[in-house]
Amino acid sequence: MMNLDCQGKGIPFKFYAAYYPPIYTKVKANSLSELIKGVSIVDKNSIFYHVFHPMLSSHVVPEDLPNDFAFWLRESLHDEYLAEVVADIKGREPLTIEDIRKEILELLNTSTHLDKTADYPFVFISFIPVVYPLNVEVRTLAEFMDAIAKVPVRSLFYHFVYKRVMGLSKRNDFTTWLEENFGLIDLGEKIAKIDPQTYTEEEDFRQDLLKILEGELLK
């Protein structure tokens, strides 16, 4: 077992969290062709909101439809097949939000029912992030694991998903800190392989992250 009280290179990990207050974009879609146009023109914050924000409990969707696009395709457009393939969009490293936008467009364009009218419109939402410090700073692996178990899920989401997907950092912050500060390459890679798109319950994400940490650091 590693010395969990070791400070490595002494680089502190400072935890932040974020809110994503919704903003109406004035873009709506009443058909698949209009959805394709909307996905093409809205800002990257809007794509992020509809693909990743459902992971937070404030924006719940069914487990088999982990993003808003898939939900609308099934519930409003009644296209089961397209809903399923869009639901399978991946979000793990190294994908960025523009990679995901491109994949969504490619999948939507495979349909032959572009002008079918939906029961209700898809309303594109964007946001301006509100990022704030938690006043939680750790230097050891023990402190890091304790913090992962206790900080709000919004903090885990910000460091693991938001910054990396939106291009603010090349990798998720947890992997970067563990690799650069402690040389834990294998652990960092295992964490990086977690796909946030497989979660609709945020606490499940926390528990899986802790399992990986405990499995590597406590063995």
Task: Give a quick rundown of the structure.
Pfam families: DUF5752. With about 220 residues, this protein is α+β, with helices and mostly antiparallel strands.
Structural class: alpha+beta
Major sheet: order of its strands? 1-4
* Residues in helices, as a percent range: 40-55%
- Major sheet description: 2 strands, antiparallel
- What amount of the residues lies in strands? 15-25%
What is the quaternary state of this protein? single chain
Query: What is the rounded distance between the termini?
Result: 5 Å
Secondary-structure element order, as H and E?
A: EEHHHHHEEHHHHH
CA radius of gyration is 19 Å
Residue windows where pLDDT falls under 50 for at least 5 positions? none
Shape: elongated
| Strands, total number | 4
The number of helical runs is: 10
Q: How many domains is the backbone divided into?
A: 2
Determine the mean pLDDT. Answer: 94
